[in-house]
Amino acid sequence: MSYMKFGRVYLFLIIMLFSACILPSATISQLVVVTDPIKYPLPSWPALCVLNGSFKVVIRAPSSATKWSFSITHNTVNVKYDIESFTGFYNSSSGLWTFYLQVPSKALEGLYSLKVSYTVDDGSYIYTQPKCVYVFKTYPEYLLIAHVSDTHLPYGADVIARAIYELNLIRPTIIVQTGDFVDIGVIASAWNYAWSIIFNGSSKIPILVIPGNHDHSGDDAANYQKYCGPLYYNLSFGKFHFIAMDTRELGYVDIDQLRWAENVLKKISLGDVKIMLIHHPIFGSGFMISGSWQNINALRSYLYYSWDSNLNAASEFLRLVEQYNVNLVLAGHIHREQFNIYNGKHIFETNAPAGGSLPSGVYWSYRLVNVSSDGKINVLSIGGKAPQNSPSSYPIGSLLYYYAPLNDGSTKSSSIKIYNNLDATIHPLVEFIVDGSVPVSNYKFYPYTPKDYSVISVDGVHIVSFRVSIPAKTIYSITFTAINETVKPMISVDVVKSGDDLIFNVNATDSGVGVKRVGLNYQFMFSDGSKSSWYNVDDIPPKIVVNRDQIIYSYTSLLYMYKLTIPSNVQSVSYSLIAEDFLGNVEYFNGTFTILAPKQYTLTIDSSPISGVQFTLSGSTYTTKFSTSLVAGNYTVSFPVEVNVGGVKYIFSGWSDGFSGSTRTIILTSDTNLTVYYKAEAPPQTPSYWIYIAIASLLVLMVIIVVVYRRK
Q1: How many CB atoms lie within 10 A of CB 670?
Q2: Alpha carbon of 142 to those of 45, 239, 351: distances in Å?
Q3: What is the DSSP letter of 195?
Q4: Which candidate, 347, 213, 340, 337, places its Cα nearest to that of 280?
Q5: pLDDT confidence of residue 528
Q6: Strand partners, 343
Q7: pTM of the model
Q8: What is the predicted pLDDT for the residue at 207?
Q9: Is 710 in a helix, a strand, or coil?
Q10: Which end of the chain has fewer beta carbons closer than 10 Å to its terminal beta carbon, N or C?
């Protein structure tokens, strides 16, 4: 076995060991399997259909199944339609039933869940597949595709939740996710978030998902196929055709799958629009590229390395693009934007991640791509940039909106406010759902009536919808109401000081038409008695709940937070908070916040019996006698152990409060007076005369002893 093969086996064993720790079989069995028994449609591979048209349903059930029934339930207004007309047959080799269901002519446009029931000998069975059917009024002349990629669940759960929240307002035709849906296929929480945020969450838009290399990791995409869908598939809708493929862990589409794709392409009319979805992009560099699949070597400098390492697959892929006139190829994987125009007509667009890791200069984003039925591609960008000028996709987190007080048909008023912080004009879909017990003629728009809007009255509610153009960096609001509200909003505030900032935490409530705006006026009072001008913050954006666990779209009460930086010499801040509802009723909350100056105390340090001794206080040098005013706190003081004054050495001996060390920490909580004591060192004394006599006597004695010794 080669070293490379041994390394791969070793890596696989590590991943499997890691997988066993992450996702035990007991845990995985509790997750929602979306691909059994309903094989199609899926939340990740929906059926797109039109009124009076039909859509296919494939389900695994015994051949003896009878009493089949089908219904679809609208996911916005919970309207249910029973499918009265359908045909079906059983395939004994596959064990699957295939049905063709006719869409009711009166069905609302939108996203539906599918309910299937049947009976066999041992009882009745009922299954519901969420958000898997989208009904259009007619076949569209163009698709607005929202392209996201590399969500890397569970780590990107907050990011993709925010993207779903924003795209529900922009309301593209379809969302396309091009792989690395999860970070590792065996992480249970990844599939739980896939279910709660995307498959069974708040999205009003159909979504297509394909696998990436991370979706294969840990289990060779076994969980992906259970909790998401097939590794490759195709979807046709009118003149638009999606061919979704799997580049696997090796980063290219294998020949067998390319043959499958060619069989799909052969059945598509020549003038129809063909869109391929892959994870690993075939082009990793360049912009305008000319060439031919027949001379793949001439294109190698543009190929992404995984395709460059598999030139036969790259050549075959480009042959399909050229021969069958594929209009658009969407990809991900590289965690950055890449845009190519191949031979002047084939568009290759790769987007940055929507939850995965971010290289320098890249931000989480989605790309909007407009595709017309005649094959024209317009890749939209922010800031007036061309799509090849990165970064130019739509940053996630720059669009904020809310409905108030509710938007579920239970109230006689609904309002929306949109903060478009994107550097691009948007054309969102505003959709009011109000109480249908009041005639729609009693409802009025405020402050203006849109030029084009539609009204559908169904199941006790009125659904009013229209698109509006909102320029970059602007705020938009509108109300649809049957009440003449005169009650003012309620407002409360908690003001706290945090460091050099004053934090205003505001709660504003209005159950009539909803809170439109909270503003703040403030004025500084300085320590010298002077005042600043009044400053105005006209519109504080509210705090909207959008995260992996919850997305809230409508609010009776809103929370606001504003941080005000306080200049150093401010003694107090006067403020006036304003809460305004969508009909112009205003309430005020006035107050003054006193900035409490920190307490100061006098510290006096002297020395005895000498003065002028140098010492350090918190790193600075001073001399005794010393006295100053300091903010309450801890201060380190250090005196020298010995000092020379006038030729006399003085030795440190202690402090007046009994502390014995020459270095200490003074805890200043009151006026403090301390003295440092030194003792003079005694000078050396002159020897007395008797010492000299003793020395002389000793010398004489020694001489005598020597003389006597020599005589002997």
Answers
A1: 9
A2: 20, 9, 21
A3: I
A4: 213
A5: 80
A6: none
A7: 0.82
A8: 98
A9: helix
A10: C
Length of the chain: 712
Q: What pLDDT sits at residue 694? A: 57
> How far, in Å, CA of 408 to CA of 405, rounded?
10
The answer to whether residues 489 and 508 touch, using CB atoms and an 8 Å cutoff, is: yes
Type of residue at 99? F
pLDDT number for residue 78 = 87
Structure tokens at 513: 């038409």
In one-letter notation, the amino acid at residue 320 is: L
Residue 352 is predicted with a pLDDT of 98
CA gap 374, 276 in Å, rounded? 16
How far CA 701 is from CA of 439, 689, 690, 691, 692, in Å, comes to 140, 19, 16, 15, 14
> Which residue type sits at 522?
Y
Instruction: Specify burial of residue 669 (Cβ count, 10 A radius: 0-12, 13-18, 19+).
Output: exposed
Residues of the chain with confidence (pLDDT) below 50: 1-29, 712
The answer to whether residues 343 and 291 touch, using CB atoms and an 8 Å cutoff, is yes
d(CA 115, CA 128): 4
What residues contact residue 533 under an 8 Å CB cut-off, 6+ apart? 523
Cβ burial, residue 658 (10 Å; 0-12/13-18/19+): exposed
Contacts of 230 (CB under 8 A, 6+ apart): 35, 45
Residue 329's identity, in one-letter code, is: V
**How many other β-carbons are positioned within 10 Å of the β-carbon of residue 494?**
9
- 6 DSSP 8-state letter: H
| The two three-digit tokens of residue 290, written as one number | 């000319």
What per-residue confidence (pLDDT) applies to 22? 47
Alpha-carbon gap, residue 630 to 618, rounded angstroms: 12
CB-CB contact of 51 with 107 (8 Å):
yes
Query: Is-contact 463 432, C-beta < 8 A?
Result: yes
Structure tokens that stand for 535 in this block: 């400053």
CA 603 to chain centre: 52
